[in-house]
User: Fold these one by one.
Assistant:
Number 1:
Amino acid sequence: MFSLAEENYLKAIYHLEQEHNGEVSTNAIADRMDTKPSSVTDMVQKLAEKEVLSYKKYKGTLLTPSGRKIAANVIRKHRLWEVFLVEKLNFHWDEVHDIAEQLEHIQSEELVVRLDKFLGHPDFDPHGDPIPDKHGNVKRTEKKLLSECEKNQRGVCVGVKESSGEFLQYLDKRKISIGTKIKVLGKEFFDGSMIIQVGNDQFFISKKIAENLYVQTN
Amino acid sequence: MFSLAEENYLKAIYHLEQEHNGEVSTNAIADRMDTKPSSVTDMVQKLAEKEVLSYKKYKGTLLTPSGRKIAANVIRKHRLWEVFLVEKLNFHWDEVHDIAEQLEHIQSEELVVRLDKFLGHPDFDPHGDPIPDKHGNVKRTEKKLLSECEKNQRGVCVGVKESSGEFLQYLDKRKISIGTKIKVLGKEFFDGSMIIQVGNDQFFISKKIAENLYVQTN
DNA sequence: TAATATTTTTAGCTTAGTCTAAAAATAAGG
DNA sequence: CCTTATTTTTAGACTAAGCTAAAAATATTA
Ligand SMILES: [Mn+2]
Ligand SMILES: [Mn+2]
Ligand SMILES: [Mn+2]
Ligand SMILES: [Mn+2]
């Protein structure tokens, strides 16, 4: 029904919609997909014909509910395959994206159902991103302070409570910014300090740090 | 390096070469691939440019060693994925071909290595077809009498010893002909009779039948 | 608000892979 | 061996998806 190229566009637009929460511009799509804006205009007009997105010249695009469902399903497959590659084939989590980029386009409802079951119905991919359910719904959660997180919880940094220069510099040094994924590897009850994982780095943070970082948890 | 369409052509030509053992005609390829002969001519000329097959106008084509290796690798992936689908995802063996037709085109050396390992380095796919090794070599075996086969062995019918009308009619009734795959489910030492599987059917055969059927075993 | 800069679209080309219709080569039959 | 049938190739067109260059719309800013 939808070609590989069309699926990739829908997926990119889906992600961009979340990020900008709202219409997505032609240039933003071109940037994300490594194509030229003129190519995007063509494709977006075709997808508007197919009613998977709404488009007004010069005004940007928004997915329709049906387009959003298709995109979510591609993302579901992408993330399920990533789980498979890491959990079953023992790939490292940072090696799997490009393979999943191909596997996400395999067409077979039944395959997805069985893969999901085989993997034990996982809720998150190896990067900590949530796996949409079969209806395209993603479990979206409230933000909270990192200090409220438990061991093994994952979250995405969505903001800071205090924003002094020193604190922001500290975050910068630790390569933490909005959108950074954080996993709690350990938590000390005595002083509330934590060991966390950020990208490939693991390090200690004090309770004070943890109390000033907002995360959106899984 | 090679597109999905090119890979499918190479694979089809590979199979046709075995079947006709020799040059493959344009029409034969068109038939197999469900395309028009004119499309085949175009593609075959392109593949000849790329030196994966040799082609002389009106004379048919033959894969070069490099073309044969590429084809065998696609077939390797196809059959490994079929094993995965049946053994791990519990698909029935007659449901997996179309999905494998897509999965065989996923590009990743490492994925194949790990999938092969995960599956325990299988030698045959769920249909009993041999899985080429990483160098494109297929274990080709001698033909022998079905009566010489052991329990759980699989073979492809490649001929008969006696060819009386009654015998051939029997084979016909049982839907056994050249190319039919047979699996030995059980063997009785006392009288040499067997239970065999042919397609979805399972039935008894006497020693006399088994002694007159040549099979190529895995 | 008028000039300038940026974004987006259009127009026209390109390549891969397919098709139909017609021409050319080869094979078969009398 | 000549005529007819079959196979194969060529010529020309089409669609999907991309590109460049130029035009048009929108946004910025002096
Ligand atoms: Mn990914
Ligand atoms: Mn993709
Ligand atoms: Mn198959
Ligand atoms: Mn295929």
Number 2:
Amino acid sequence: MSVIGGYIKAGDMMEARVLFEAMPMKDLAVWNVMISGYVDVEDLVASVYLLEAMPFHEVGTWNVILSGFCKARDLESAKNCFNKMPCKNVASWTMMVDGYVKSGDLNEARLMFDEMPEKNLISWTTMIGGYAKNGQPRCTLELFEQLKEQGIKPDVTLIIGIISACSHLGILDVAESIINEYIGPSLYSNLHVITSLIDMYAKCGSIEKALKVFHTTLGKDLLCYSTMIAAFANYGLGHEAISLFHDMQRENVKPDGVIFIGVLSACNHGGLVEEGRRFFKQMIEKYDVQPTEKHYACMVDLFGRAGCLQEAHNLITTMPMAPSTVVWGALLAACSVHHNVELAEVAAAELFKIEPDNSGNYILLSNIYASAGRWHDVSNARSMIRSQRVRKNRGSSWIELGAVVHEFVMADDSHMDADDIYCILDFLTEDMKLSYI
DNA sequence: GATATCCTCA
């Protein structure tokens, strides 16, 4: 039995299976070990096969498989499994609720939650936290009220969900009254709670309070620093973020990939191009952190804003992963700000390939053409939308374009001929047209 | 079975 466990820990299911088959007497424990081993290596077919061959009927075993389906985001199989279960407990129900929450189907999660024959604190936390994470703070607080009416006392995990909901809603007052009511001295020593608090204060506009909590915290860990650095970044306080990054290392906390997203975006928001370039290099060479797409997006944006468009484009071409719309979008936006038509065309071409239906890209490109006075190209970009039947997802965009055109025509140095005027007429509102006649 | 940080603004 312990030998089988060893193979399973090492991920060698083949060897474990051979020993398992050779066992003359198999007890419940060894069946469970085998089945959860298969679930861990995501071989759900094998785990179900064993479950069916198993002479025992135990909720725990079914729950292991159920959690496997939920983890794999295969809600249909999970529901099937759930319906077939000879007996269910609170954990089985909660896992289903959690499965729906994680796949973003809050309605289905709530239906399950309401149907539960009995609920415990974990089920409540799952549902409440689910609303919080999926941007439904109102539902979060309503359910929290219901919980209080039932006389259930919230614990740390639940409070974290509530704090997160309040930070999304921007309602510091509600959050603070909850904190006063439930956060006693014991909760203030919990780093999860503290980190959520720092994040909440920062997101709700009170960096002072965030800092106050941060400074009074002993034994700060990586996430604590990470949250504070990201907060500085969002406030445009680049130097403060960087100095905190150095403090962190003095405290022997090792940086990870997420920390660097904070540091790089702090450089970005603070306009610190030189520092950003240096940290990006250091991250890879000194700290051995592999950049993800988010790091690249940050750098492209940083270079783009600073007007180093060529450098931004070069960086994209060196990316080890396929650049997504986020990265190309950052470049296109930067080209718009710095009036670089050539690179804008490159970025736009890539965006058209990846998301041909997004009208925003065509509009941005035609705006760039417009500000360069290239009316024929403007017209072409617009007809691309017509011919490709691109959905217009923002009606106001054409009006913005109209304003760009209007400004251009009004400028004294716009040498437009009749042909140009013809191209732009479409963009103008009736009022604007009248002013040219 | 539930628990905190993470690119961008047109």
